[in-house]
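Reopening: structure tokens for the S-adenosyl-L-homocysteine complex, inputs below.
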Amino acid sequence: MIFQPAHLIFAAGTAVYLVIRAVFQRRAASGHKAVSHADLRDRLLVVLVGACQVGLPAVLMLTPWLDTAHYARPPALTWFGAPLLAGALWLFWRSHADLGVNWSVTLELDRDHALVTRGVYGRIRHPMYASFFAMALAQALLLDNWIAGWGALLAVGLLYRIRTPREEQMMLESFGDAYRAYMQRTGGVVPRAIPRS
Ligand code: SAH
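Re-run output (same inputs, fresh job):
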């Protein structure tokens, strides 16, 4: 089997992504849950995003099953995809580092959950989802396949559309005015130019 450079770059990025997640998952595992909206729909979204981020590229690289969805990708796209992937991984790592034990893969809050509004959470409320969007775009730029390349962008878009309003509602119910004020001065995945009055 011959691996293309762009595929290898994406595979290396995925390995870094999985290591970051595994390290922080261990740190965050212990908290007692006070609030949970971790229903089947939310768990299915998590599985869908993971399958599109990691599963489809693995199928592309290791099997011929997605060959019919192949297209000729301009090799120069690697020069955009690789730095974007590196930037996305940095933001993913910083989001985990700033949330610390206050992270959960689903919609949950610990009994002693603290609202984080510093670091990469200072100007946007969803830096981790922003990193997912950037990683998915890098995936589309690096993989020469309609399904394995673009699937993650669709899945992350769906996660953002469905989960973000529920997550913000949960945060508002638990943190009230502190989260309301935080929402006024921050953007979702793009920093706000002028604070909302
Ligand atoms: N939406 C955020 C976090 C994703 S992880 C981002 O994109 O960066 C989802 C979990 O993180 C939520 O269930 C909640 O437990 C926690 N969370 C989200 N925003 C938070 C914040 N500002 N402070 C503390 N915890 C937060």
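The domain at 37-185 is CATH 1.20.120.1630 (Four Helix Bundle (Hemerythrin (Met), subunit A)). The chain has a mean pLDDT of 94. Marking as resolved unless the reporter disagrees.
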